[in-house]
Amino acid sequence: MPNLEHPAYPAADLLRLESLVPCRESQVSTLLSIFGERQQFSFPSIFIYGHTSSGKTYVMQTLLTTLQLPHVFVNCVEYFTSRLLLEEILIQLQSCSSGTEQTSPVHCDTLNDFVRLFKQAVASRELQDQTLYIVLDRAEQLREMEANILPAFLRLQELTDRNVTVVLLSEIVWELFRPNTGCFEPFTMYFPDYSIGHLQKILSQNHPSEYSADFYAAYINILLGVFYMVCRDLKELRHLAALNFAKYCEPVVRGEANERDTRKLWKNIEPHLKKAMQTVYLREISSSQWERLQHDGGEPGQLKGLSAHTHVELPYYSKFLLIAAYLASYNPVRTDKRFFLKHHGKIRKTNFMKKHEKTSNHLLGPKPFPLDRLLAILYSIVDNRVAPTANIFSQITSLVTLQLLSTVGQNDQLDGPRYKCTVSLDFIRAIAR
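Structure tokens predicted for Origin recognition complex subunit 5 (433 residues):
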């Protein structure tokens, strides 16, 4: 028995919609109840929120496209100003009403112009007889626009006197949207995260045709057993599944095992999944490079130059300033003489020094240092003579702006500014290399 039933839509379309949105049948059923029939006035505004990769955008696009409902879909990150956003809605609306792509430009400077042009665009007979849906993806960007944009979209049905419903998709809750002056409250709807059973069902649908569905489902079960505790993102898991499936199939391809030898397949894929755990979300290497690394049996850290750290381009002296700042943050002041002077004399290792050197300074975090100490270390690690010019001081300010250094304390201290290095050891190794 199908889970989606609605008298206003054909059963074949609902059955196809159910197959396209697995594990989201309850949310789609609620949306269909809110939408009602095509000619009925729906709720003026709907606010849908949930974590990233919980199916909000995909469900809305699939629902409106499958049921052939007139709609406008706009990403607020792409159209980041109110003028761009309003003009894009009008352009899509004109192409929706005429059935062809709209090429003529639309100029809309104010909200009053938008309401007037919106009424003209909806004047066609097709759009007057059914509800028009305006979907604004990444709607949290509306908070950065003019103060009247969000309240106007929430009651656009009232302003235009047309059968229109605005759907806002966001990753944050409605309480962070609500203006201080008050506004029309939308119907709020929450998309929960996919459970491990939902992820198993969704990912298993992508099995290759040359292998059985049970074989691919067993692989997805192994993959989720490794990655589910650290990654719930459906897109990332789908990427990992496609990336490591060839390695999982190697014993079957070589004839060393069949599809039912789960233990042997697990022993083959386990070390490679542990390597893949180091690159979750990071994308430090491309898919082709990862496959080549698996084939050669190397470690992810062996691919020098692929880390995002090495892509930071800094001026010549900024690199030395950053290295000097790292040394000043993680080395005690008493060790400067031993490390940076050629004729430092005899250093006695007292019990006090031994007791404190048992704890790694990397575990204690970076320590603040004054500007004169930074410059003193810089002069000692650079081969040629460096003059304390304005160029050097401007590069220190640039490192603070890039958040590679941070300022500690107040700016009006009599003893000069103090800084702290905020980058990791791997970053410094990449710079020093």
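The radius of gyration is 30 Å.
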